[in-house]
Amino acid sequence: MPLHGKVAIVTGSGRGLGLAYAQELARQGAAVVINDVDTETAAEAVASIEASGGRAVAVVAAVGPTATAQELVRAAVESFGRVDILVTNGGVLRDTVLWKMSDDDFDTVIGVHLRGTFTCVREAVIRMREQGEGGRIICIGSPTGQRGTFGQTNYAAAKAGIAGMVRTWAIELGRSNITANLVIPVAATAMTATVPYFAAAVEADAAGEPMPAFFRHDLGFGTAGDVAGTIAYLASDEAAGVTGQAIGVGGDRLQVWSHPEPVLSAYHAGGWTVEALDEQFAEVAGGSLQSVGESFPPLPDDLRR
Question: What distance in Å separates the CA atoms of residue 52 and residue 97, rounded to the nearest whole number?
C-alpha cells in the first residue's frame, strides 16, 4: 500500500470520477475525506470505502467558498490527523452558447471549478506547509480547457484557469516538496453519456462489459477506473519528481500535454505596423495558425447508434 498513513481529500467524490479516485486512494492505503453536496450520496461513498476495509469521512458542502475548504481540511485533521493529498474534482456544468449564457451560468461554473480549486488548494497547502513533510496537489482539468468546446465558455475558462494555476503552484511549492499536477480525464461520465458519438462505449460500461478497442485505444476513452490509477500514482512518493505537468489519461492511453509555447517568431524592423501585417501576415504566419476544438475520426460502422 504505497499510500499507507496518508490522508487525502477528494472534492466532488460522491459519485462518478471523483468516487473512483477516492476508492482507489483508499485501496492504496490512504484515509479519505469524501465531499459531495448530497448527504445520502456522500454517506454511500463513505460506506463503499469502509466496506472494503478503508477509512473515510464525509463533508457535505459545495466547493467554492473558503468556509468549505476550511471544513474539508478541518475534517481531515480532526478525523485522521493530517493532510497529504488533495484532489480537486468538484464541478458543475451550465452549458450554452455565448450569446445565451447568463451571468449566473458563468459565475456558477467559475465559482465552483476555478474558485473552488483555488480555495481548497490554498487551505490544503497551508496545512501541508505547517506539517513540513511535503504533499500532493492533483487538480482535474479537461480537454475543453486545452482545446475549447462549443457551448462551454464558462467551463473552458475555468479549466484553462486551473491549468495556469497548477503551473504557478508547481513553481511556488517546490521548496516545500509539494507537487502540483493537472490530470485531464477522458472517460464515460454523466456528460459523455449524452453524446451520441460515445453511445456504444457508454452502453458497454453501463452493462459492465469491456469497451470496444476503438474507444479505448484509438480515442483514449475509457472508464472512471482507468483514470484512478494515475491519480493514485501522482499521490504517491514515487511521483515526487513529477510537478507542473498536464497529464491526460483515458482507456489505454496516457498523454503528456505541452505547455503553451510559441510556434512561430517573426521579426520586422521597426515593429509590426498595420501596413506590414497587411502585406506579410499571410505569408509569415498563415501556415502556423492553430486549430481549435477537438476532432474525432468517423465511428466504425459496427459502433454507430
Answer: 44
Q: Is 139 exposed, middle or buried (0-12, 13-18, 19+ CB in 10 A)?
A: buried
Cell 509539494 belongs to residue: 178
pLDDT digits over 85-123, tens only? 999 999 999 999 999 999 999 999 999 999 999 999 999
Which cell numbers hold the place of 91? 464541478
Residue 170: HSE in the Cβ half-sphere, 13 Å Cα cutoff: 18
For residue 305, give the amino acid letter: R
Q: How far apart are CA 189 and CA 66, in angstroms?
A: 28
SS3 22: helix
Query: In this structure, how many other beta carbons lie within 10 angstroms of the beta carbon of residue 97?
Result: 10
> 85's torsion region: left (phi>0), alpha (psi -120 to 50) or beta?
beta
Can you list the domains of the chain with their CATH numbers? 7-187+223-257 (3.40.50.720)
Cα within 13 Å of Cα(57), Cβ side: 14
Residues 80/102, Cβ–Cβ less than 8 Å? no
What's residue 189's pLDDT? Answer: 83
Catalytic option among 21, 155, 197, 267: 155
Cα separation, 214 vs 221, whole angstroms:
9
3-state SS class at 205: helix
pLDDT, tens digit, 9 for 90 and up, residues 119-151: 999 999 999 999 999 999 999 999 999 999 999
In the residue annotation, 155 being an active-site residue is answered as: yes
The burial of 155, by beta-carbon neighbours within 10 Å (0-12 exposed, 13-18 middle, 19 or more buried), is given as buried
